[in-house]
Amino acid sequence: MKKIEYTPIGIIHSPFKEPKGVPIQAAVSKEKGTIEIFPEYEEGLKDLDKFSHIILIFHFHLSKKGKLLAIPYMDTKERGIFSIRGPSRPNPIGISTVKLLKIAKNILFIENVDIVDGTPLLDIKPYIPKFDNRDTENIGWLKGNIQKLPNKKDDGRFRK
Amino acid sequence: MKKIEYTPIGIIHSPFKEPKGVPIQAAVSKEKGTIEIFPEYEEGLKDLDKFSHIILIFHFHLSKKGKLLAIPYMDTKERGIFSIRGPSRPNPIGISTVKLLKIAKNILFIENVDIVDGTPLLDIKPYIPKFDNRDTENIGWLKGNIQKLPNKKDDGRFRK
User: What is this model's ipTM?
Assistant: First the structure.
C-alpha cells in the first residue's frame, strides 16, 4: 500500500535530552515542557487555551526500527508490538495526553511530559472525557504489572 | 522541517461507504467493523486479544485539505483546527478507541466504529485506563455543546 507523508507542525521541548530516564507515561509524569508550533500553523491554536488537557500525536524520532515482538518496560516477556506502548513500532507514532498550562503566541506550556526533547509534533487534539475515557474489562498482560507504573522509566532499550 | 513517511499496516472495514452519516465519535457508535492487518504485520497482534479496548491511529484518506479554522460538527462558529476533532487537519491523522471483540488470524472484529470503509490504519495501541483516562477541568467550546454528541453524524462537510 502506498506510503503516507506528514509534515511536522512543531517541536516538543522537554527536560529529557535522551530517551533513557523519561517517564513511560504522561499520566505519571510531573515534568513540564513547551511546544513550539511553527508560525504558519499558529492560527490553528485559536480556542485551544480553553481546554485543560490536549492529546499530542508525535513521531518517535530516536527509536530504532521496530520489530513485531518486544519486551515492554513493565514486563519481562516478549509481547506483540500492537499490545504494548513502546516507541519502536512499524509506524513510530506516539500519543500523550498532557495538561495545557497556557499558550503564548505559538508556544504551548504543558505539564505531564513523557516525551524526549526535540520530538517532531504531528497533531494536537483537545482531550474530551466523553470522547476519550473508557471503562474497560481487560488490560491483558498489564493486569499483573500495572502497579509498576509510577516508578518506571525508559531504560534506553528502544534507542536507535 | 523534513517530511515523515509511514506505511499502512492494514485497512479498516466498516458499514460506512462515505463520510456522510458516520457517527462523529467512537464513544457513541454501536456499529461493528473489521480490520484487515496485512499478513506481514500479523505477528505483532500477539497478546492483543486479551485487551477489551484498543486505540486505532489512522489516516483520514477522504478528507479535503485542511484549513487552520473550521466549523466543527457540534458548533456553529469557526474554531482553531487544533481545538476540534474534525478530519481536515494539517496532518489528517485520526484516533478512535474501539471495543475489540475478537481476533481471527489477521482480522480484528471491532465495535464502536466511527470510521469510513477503506481507511488506512497506521498503528494500534492497547487502551489502558490508567494511561489514557483523565479528569479534566475544561473542555472549551464543547462545554455548551456536548449534549449534542449522541445524535451527531458527519454531514460530509470535510469530504474531498
Answer: 0.95
